[in-house]
Specification:
Chain A: Keywords: Amino-acid biosynthesis, Aromatic amino acid biosynthesis, Isomerase, Lyase, Pyridoxal phosphate, Tryptophan biosynthesis. Chain A: Belongs to the TrpB family. Belongs to the TrpF family. Chain A: Pfam families: PALP (PF00291), PRAI (PF00697). The complex is a heterodimer of chains A (about 600) and B (about 260). Chain A has about 600 residues and is an alpha/beta fold. Chain A contains 23 helices and 25 strands. Chain A has three domains: about 200 residues, Alpha-Beta Barrel (TIM Barrel), CATH 3.20.20.70; about 160 residues, Rossmann fold (3-Layer(aba) Sandwich); about 210 residues, Rossmann fold, CATH 3.40.50. In chain A, about 40% of the residues lie in helices and about 20% in strands. In chain A, strands 1-2-3-4-5-6-7-8 form an eight-stranded parallel beta barrel, surrounded by four helices. Chain A is elongated, with a radius of gyration of 26 Å. About 0% of the residues of chain A have low confidence. Chain B is α/β, with parallel strands linked by helices. In chain B, about 40% of the residues lie in helices and about 15% in strands. Chain B has an eight-stranded parallel barrel, surrounded by eight helices. In chain B, helix 10 links the parallel strand 7 and strand 8. Chain B starts with a helix and ends in a 5-residue tail after the last helix. Classes of the chains: A alpha/beta (about 600), B alpha/beta (about 260). Bound molecules: pyridoxal-5'-phosphate. Pyridoxal-5'-phosphate binds next to helix 13, helix 18 and helix 22 of chain A.
Chain lengths: ~600, ~260
């Protein structure tokens, strides 16, 4: 299948839009698309690992080229000048040599190139990197040419790329201006170009992974120590079985109704609608659940499953303490043993929830390692599980971890989206135009989004935590700033340094203070079905005040990120549109933070 | 790695030492390897520090954090190994979590590891199912990807894993994380016997091994021992001599 290269990238969002391509190109030669090595480095970090990173040069010195190859690092070099063969020979990575084609004689030159690949383009007009013009493809048709070396460029766009491929059968197609609007790359055009070039073989290439079970595209899997493999396999089988067992489902829904108090309303927010002056705003009220957040939906499901597997001991991690409280609550209800690992820093900022867990009879273990937040709590919970795996279930609190956790947690949280869908149809007779939910590990968001994934008219937006700002060191914006990596049992997106060390996240909201995002979200970000935006601490706090005063609902800090993002979305929406916000939890647990941060509030 | 099979044939037990690369500074790496090979260890596992080592207990985690504080990365370790100016006489095995490898690039990692003189790789969070991510590249470089088996590995899976085993098999002797233990569970002997019967390559016991009593208990049921936390801690506290009796207890010819 023909590979795709998106060339001349300069901005983050365009690198991300190109995530289904095979190669991205950075132009180091003088051009309006020129980037510095540092900029290419930054952009390259956002690309998936097996993406080819190609540097474009015109008559650069060997030193300049090697320097860029090492620094970015580049996996291929593309040369557009009159580079001598000696230079091409010296370059360690594969080399692409570019040629302009006008006449059949020009085609001859291609076969003499010693480069690994030959790129053909129409003669340049604006600069030597590429012309943006189509040349006569038929020139390539009846000549002896190794098409497995051929890269086709020059004036390609989403409308002509299929024809170009069928006529010239190249190894790769290369596009730059054809995916731009007014001289700037365009995310939609990039994605459409890739789709056109790859056709329906797309789905198959996404499943490059060895064992597609438990993968969302390239993300997911079961990356755990061997000691845990038996437990994750048993869980996989037990969940498969339970999912299809009507009795199990009945019991789960029984507790959701009688104990949690579902279904939760989809409240029309009249004053927010008026204040924002845009779409009609509806609030999905997960804050009304027993224990105060959506976490309990999952805790019940998994606790029932654990018992079904004969396990009466539960270990969990918690960030904001909402998942810890939900787990402690359910363990009290079902008389299960409960240990909760919680970062020292989170224990400080979520005192109330710590006390609730203890009151409910759980053992709360303080984790002092690392930044003393959610990531460290997950590490300790995993170590505890490795040590006690024979009789203990790990009740993970978000759509994270080794398969089947991300799928299972999503399924248990999907009650949010299913109810919402039914309710909005009852109230408005149609689906919403946009839905916003906050993402930490991603459980409330995936639960809300999943039932709407196939409804193309519904825009789905995840709000992640920008902390002090995505351009500072202190944030938890995994999808804005992160890259592919393996953490806590799954391939997902994580915040990491160049050596693959996971970085600490920062957010005022303990529940979003995590340097990873579950595998399904990572996949939905890549394929563009969900967009993710980052909200700062200050924006979230402002939304806490706004919603409290306009609707009499004090949201959790996590949920406030969704509200702040919704407000931004509302700016560009009209009065006849519908916007749903997932209010994942209530603010009781955050009262100490609110009192401190909003001091002097009048 | 062939040497390990020969050792087994000759009836000798192997002693594999684990060290944390860069604990105490990168210059310690060469010193420690030289010391250990002079002291007669059979092979050395070179540990790469990682921010989230969930298979490790407090000793190795702390050593990793010290190494990270020194700025140690996978790349720096491989570079340092390529610069060794002494003869490496024992097989070196790189032990690293998966993420640094993925970040570095699996193919590039195996190439550099080969240049660094490594014979094998152990990745504790890369299960057998996902070995395709690394194994094809390792094969190209003739590096063996060492598999771990544990007390919780069910029989059918154990057979699968052992069928493909190369180099040696890492038999994890505790249900838990790394770190010295006072005692090993009774069932460990039966487990290692079972593994050894099925394994085409030598079987080494690791995790928790720190005392001569552990060696005595398992001597007849394994082909060697892997000692990590005890060595890492002894190097850190500058008292590696304390471990000499343990090394001798394993490697000395033993009358049956
Ligand atoms: C109220 C609330 N919302 C959201 C989250 C974030 O988690 P997730 O992304 O899994 O929904 C948390 C986590 O603690 C929470 O307590």
């Amino acid at each position: 299948m023909t590979r795709v290269k998106i060339c001349g990238l300069m901005e983050e969002q365009h690198v991300k839009a190109a995530s289904q391509a095979d190669a991205i190109g950075f132009v180091f030669a003088p051009s309006k698309r020129r980037v510095s090595i540092e900029r290419a480095q930054e952009l390259s970090r956002l690309a998936n690992n097996d993406m080819q990173r190609i540097g474009v040069f015109v008559n650069a010195s060997y030193e300049e080229i090697e320097n860029a190859v090492k620094a970015v690092p580049l996996t291929m070099v593309q040369l557009h000048g009159d580079e001598p063969d000696e230079l091409i020979q010296r370059i360690e990575v594969p080399v692409i040599q570019a040629f302009s084609i006008r006449t059949p004689d020009d085609v001859e030159k291609l076969n003499n190139s010693i480069a690994d690949y030959i790129l053909v383009d129409a003669p340049g007009t604006d600069y030597r990197g590429g012309s943006g013009h189509v040349f006569d493809w038929s020139l390539l048709e009846n000549v002896a040419l190794d098409h497995s070396r051929l890269i086709l460029a020059g004036g390609l766009n989403r409308d002509n790329v299929q024809a170009a491929i069928s006529q010239t059968a190249p190894f790769m197609v290369d596009v730059s201006s054809g995916v731009e609007t007014d001289g700037r790359k365009d995310e939609v055009k990039i994605q459409q170009f890739i789709l056109q070039a790859k056709g329906d073989s797309m789905e198959r290439t996404q499943e490059k992974t060895i064992d597609p079970v438990g993968f969302f595209g390239r993300y997911g899997g079961q990356f755990v120590p061997e000691t845990l493999m038996k437990a994750v396999k048993e869980l996989e089988a037990a969940y498969e079985d339970a999912k299809n067992d009507a009795e199990f489902q009945k019991e789960y829904h029984h507790y959701l109704k009688e104990y949690v108090g579902r279904e939760q309303p989809l409240t029309f927010a009249a004053r927010m609608t008026e204040a924002w002056g845009g779409p009609k705003i509806y609030l999905k009220r997960e804050d009304l659940n027993h224990t105060g957040a959506h976490k309990v939906n999952n805790a019940i499901g998994q606790a029932l499953l654990a018992q079904r597997m004969g396990k009466r001991k539960i270990v969990a991690e918690t960030g904001a303490g909402q998942h810890g409280v939900a787990t402690a609550t359910i363990c009290a209800l079902f008389d299960l043993d409960c240990v909760v690992f919680m970062g020292e820093e989170d224990i400080k900022r979520q005192q109330l929830n710590v006390f609730r867990m203890k009151l409910l009879g759980a053992r709360v273990e303080s984790v002092t390692k690392g930044s003393g937040t959610l990531k460290d709590a997950v590490n300790e919970a995993l170590r505890y599980w490795v040590t006690n795996v024979e009789d203990t279930h790990y009740l993970i609190g978000s759509a994270l971890g080794p398969h089947p956790f991300p799928t299972m947690v999503r399924d248990f949280q999907s009650v949010i989206g299913k109810e919402t869908k039914r309710q909005i149809l009852e109230k408005e007779g149609r689906l919403p135009d946009a839905i916003v939910a906050c993402v930490g590990g991603g459980s409330n968001a995936i639960g809300m989004f999943h039932p709407f994934i196939e409804d193309a008219s519904v825009r789905l937006i995840g709000a992640e935590a920008a902390g002090d700002g995505v351009d500072t060191e202190r944030h938890a914006a995994t999808l804005t700033k992160g890259s592919e990596g393996v953490l806590h049992g799954a391939m997902m997106k994580i915040l990491q340094d160049d050596a693959g060390q996971v970085q600490e996240a920062h957010s005022i909201s303990a529940g979003l203070d995590y340097p990873g995002i579950g595998p399904e979200h990572a996949h939905l970000a890549d394929n563009g079905r969900v967009t993710y935006e980052a909200i700062t601490d200050d924006e979230a706090l402002a939304s806490v005040i706004e919603m409290s005063r306009l609707e009499g609902i004090i949201p959790a800090l996590e949920s406030a990120h969704a509200i702040a993002e919704a407000k931004k979305q509302a700016q560009s929406m009209t009065a006849d549109e519908l916007l749903v916000i997932c209010v994942s939890g209530r603010g009781d647990k955050d009262m100490a933070t609110y009192a401190e941060k909003l001091e002097g509030l009048s | 790695m062939k040497r390990l099979a020969e050792l087994k044939q000759a009836g000798h037990k192997a002693f594999v030492a684990y060290i944390m690369a860069g604990d105490g500074g990168i210059e310690k790496l060469g010193e420690q390897i030289q010391y250990l090979q002079e002291r007669g260890v059979t092979a050395i596992e070179v540990g790469i520090p990682f921010s989230d080592p969930v298979a490790d207990g407090p000793t190795i985690e702390a050593a990793g954090n010290r190494a990270l504080a020194e700025g140690i990365t996978l790349e720096k370790v491989l570079d340092e190994m390529q610069r060794f100016d002494f003869e490496v006489k024992v097989p070196l095995v790189i032990m690293t979590y998966l993420n640094p490898v993925i970040r570095f690039g699996a193919e590039r990692f195996t190439q550099e590891a080969k240049k660094a003189g490594a014979s094998g790789i152990i990745i504790p969070d890369l299960p057998f199912e996902h070995r395709q991510l690394i194994e094809p590249f390792a094969k190209q470089q003739e590096l063996v990807l060492i598999q771990l088996v544990t007390l919780t590995t069910i029989d059918s899976r154990l057979e699968e894993i052992l069928k493909q085993a190369e180099g040696f098999v890492y038999a994890v002797t505790v249900t838990g994380i790394t770190g010295s233990r006072d005692e090993l569970a009774e069932e460990v002997g039966a487990f290692t016997r079972k593994v050894r019967e099925l394994s085409p390559v030598p079987v080494y016991a690791g995790f928790g091994i720190s005392k001569e009593s552990h060696v005595d208990m398992l001597r007849d049921d394994v082909d060697g021992f892997i000692v990590g936390s005890a060595i890492v801690q002894a190097f850190h506290e500058d008292r590696i001599e304390d471990l000499e009796p343990l090394i001798d207890a394993v490697t000395a010819p033993h009358s049956v």
